[in-house]
Every structure is written in structure tokens, then in C-alpha cells.
Amino acid sequence: MGPFGDASTITLGDVLREHRRSRGGLTATVDHAVRLSYAEFDHRVNKLANALAAHGAGPGERVLWLGQNSFRLLELLGACAKLGAAVIPVNWRQSADELAFVIDDVAARVVVWQDAEIGVTVQAAREQSASAAGSLWVRHDATGPGSYEEFLESGDATDPGVDVDPASPVLGIYTAAFEGRPHAAMLSHWSALIEGLVVGRIAELSDATVFLNSGPMFHLGTLMTTLATLVHGGTNVVVARVDPEEMCAVIEAERCNRAFIMAPTLEAIREINAGGRFDLTSLWPDPDPATWTMCTPSANPATGRAGGYGQSEVSGLITSYGLGRKTDSIYGRPAPLSQVRIVDDTGADVPDGETGEIICRGPVVMTGYLHRDELNAQRRRGGWHYTGDLGKRAPDGSIHFVGPKLRMIKSASENIYPFEVERCLTAHPGVAAACVIGVPDERWTQSVKAVVVRAEGSTVTAEELVEHCRSSIASYKKPREVVFVGSLPKQANGQVDRDRVDAEHGGGGYPGQVSSGRRDVPLRAGAR
């Protein structure tokens, strides 16, 4: 074993080393005025890696990103890859309480944060956190002392040459707040590289790819194609957040030929470009906006098909409709190097056509949730990952996603777990009980509705509860509607009868249900 491991292994850091040799003059990333070739990108990655190492961010350690989309997140990914560390980008739309939980949960050696738009929230979270003082905090959107650029320049440009295990985590994605708090799924070099190859095959990527990172880079809906573009030596173009007009300008200027664009944003782009202000033909060759479709990692331009099943815990997609022959299911068959079974509660396979839990295995499966030993033992049994999702196998071998075992609300590309919103509502002294449901929504797939039992003597209003949620959890999770009832219906076991609440208050349209005929969303009808 030399400084870069043995000859039969490869890591994400090795991919960057080879791109520097073989594609050094090609553009690696563009972010407004910043334009870096692969040679320049790897040079900066080396300096950043050595700066991180000097502050203890070595093998097995973690770096936290508290910011919007930026080329610097890609640099942190590369630097961590060369050190055997992992970078964890966090949903910047969360509340201070939510961010404080993540800061303590990750216990990062270095935290890279952003002041613009989210600085007040980040600083409040830092003050609430019990572990923030143990981390080095570096501001990425600043100059001078304490800035990212000053920090990067403190590192030597020599490749750190750390022997990194490709099975070790390099990326963490927070997901699945099914118990009221989220969990970080840790993904290895192998998972990033192999999923990158699979997504690259589905989306027909190459070093000629110019991918617009317009979706959030804390979400694998975007990051799947980000990583695939990086693996293939293409160009990652970055905008800080979804801004349809800016996206149009960037697509035209950079001639982006791939992007992450969900239905509401596509609708806004159609409106903005109704008069043909921007040339978007690099992405949508037909200038007629009516023909434009969403851009997702499961969309195959060669077959015209999109769809698949996946979750953050499996690095994105683990089945695909875009690869190979058409199937009986829009979720397709398992992707290369993946195994999928449908099992009952004992772990035995159910007959084809019957519903059971989807379990899977392969190098794209996470190494586990960070700091969740008990949960990992529950979800990883007998050499398989138990997804917590229900599905069935069609006669042709393809997989149908039925729905989460635990109910989840889908709002555009965001996953909202009712328990998390209920936990917030019942923390209000005016609430005795709450049941949160999803209501079908033509624009957003579902909207959040809270059915609330007031505490005795309480006169709390719907507006007060919406504002309470807005101040405590991410704004997109807050109820759009609150209704008050005398009691919630119960099952024989004493649990809330959610089906009855849905029936009485218009709930429905959950992932896996047919509500509006939509078949155009990628992972399990949208990634987690």
C-alpha cells in the first residue's frame, strides 16, 4: 500500500487527480465570475485539504457546510475526499433550532458558513449549540480574516497523499425525519463513484456535459447529477438558489445542456421566457415552451423516459425506468450493481404482485446513519438495507413503489414528515393534540394541513400556530391550513386514525398514490 492505496482501488480524490492530468484544461466549475479548470480546481482542492488537515479534519472526521449552492462546496467535497473525511451539506432553509441540532449532531472539526440571507439564523443556531465552540468556523462569503479564501490560502498546494479507504464515508446527507429529528446518511467513495456512473449512463453524461446546479446541493435530487458530472469530467455550473430569471440567463450564457428543474420552476421559466428573451435551446432544443419537460437525474434523453425509485440512503436511484427496455413500472428495474427484494415482516420474500418492504444491497447503499447505532441495527439486517418503503414486483421483474411505511407529505421536491410538524405544534401550550396531513395540490403535489385539538381554555388561532411553526421549523414545513376539532379519531390501539383524518379533512396524494395522474417525478416519485 502506497500513499494512494493499492492499484485495484480508486477514490473520489483519485478521480480529481486523473482529471487534472487528462482534462486539466477543461472547465470543472462555473459560479458567476469564478471559472476553474480541472487543473485549477484540483490545485485549490489540495490547498484546502492541507488547511483542513491542519485543523484536525483528517480520516473519519467531518466538515459541515451551512450555506447555499456554491463551487466551494464542491471544493470541500474534493478536499475531504483526499483526506478520508466527509463533508455534510445542510438544508439552509431550516430554523435556528433545527440547525443547532445538526451542528451538535455532526460535531464537525470545521464549519463553513454563509452570512448572506441566512446569517442571522446561522448565528442564532451557533449560540444555541452546545458543541459549536469546539469547531473552527469559516465564513465562505467574506474576505479577509476568518474567510474561506484566507483559510484556503493557508494550505500548501502539495497533494496531501493520504491513503483513503474507498469504502469510507465522503458525503453525508440529512434525511428521514421520521422520528421527529433527521438522520445523516453517510455515503462512501464507492457509492458516489458507482452512482455517478449509473446516473451518467441514464442521463447520457460526458466531459461535454454542462450541468446547472439549480436545485439545492444538500439534496441528492441535485447532487446525483453533480457527482455524475464530476465523475465524467463535465462542467458543474452553480447558482446559489432557485431563481428562474437568473437560471435562464445562466443557461443561455453557459449553454447548459443538463439541469435540475422541478415542475413549479419550469412553469416560472415558461412564463419568464414567453417572449423568447433567452436562448434556452442548449437545454430544450425545441423553442416551443409547451414541449419543455422537467430536468431530473432519472431523465434519459435517448429514450425519452424518466422515473426510478431511490432515497438518500442508497445515494439516489437504485432502480431506473430510463435504462434498457420499457417495463411494467415507471420505477423500472434495479440499476447495475444493485439488488432489490420485496419482503414481509419476517424478512421472507413475498410473491410477485404482493406488497412488502423494499430492501436492497450493493455499493450504493450508505455505510450507515451518523451516530445512530440502534437505528442502523434496525435498518441493516442480514446483509440488507431495509428502506422503510413499501413496494411490489411486477411479473416482468420491475419494481413498483407503493408508499412509505411511515406516511410522508411531498411538497414539490421537499419531503415533510408529519411527526416533525406535529412535534412542533404540540410544543405550543395552546395545543393538546395535532394530526398533520397532506392535501392534494395541483402546483406542489401536496400542501400541509394541521388538524388541531386546542388545550383546555386555549383560544390559540390558526395564524398563531402557523407563525409558531414558521419560527421553529423550516418555513416550507409549516401548515398552509389549520382546522380545529374537538378530538381526533382513534384506532383500537389508541393511536390516531390517520386514514379517518384524511377522509374527513381532504387528505391524500401521498407518494405512491395516484392523485393527479403525474408520472414525471424521479425518485419514489421524488427523492427524499
Short description:
By secondary structure, the protein is of the alpha/beta class.
What does this molecule look like?
The protein folds into three domains: 226 residues, 3-Layer(aba) Sandwich (Rossmann fold), CATH 3.40.50; 97 residues, Luciferase, Domain 3 (Luciferase, domain 3, Roll), CATH 2.30.38.10; 97 residues, GMP Synthetase, Chain A, domain 3 (2-Layer Sandwich), CATH 3.30.300. The protein has 528 residues and is an alpha/beta fold. Helix 1 packs across helix 3 and helix 4 crosses helix 5. The strands form seven sheets. Strands 2-1-10-9-11 form a five-stranded mixed β-sheet, sandwiched between helices. Strands 15, 16, 18, 19 and 20 form a five-stranded antiparallel β-sheet that branches. The two termini are 38 Å apart. It is 29% helix and 23% strand. The longest helix is centred in the N-terminal third of the chain and has 17 residues.
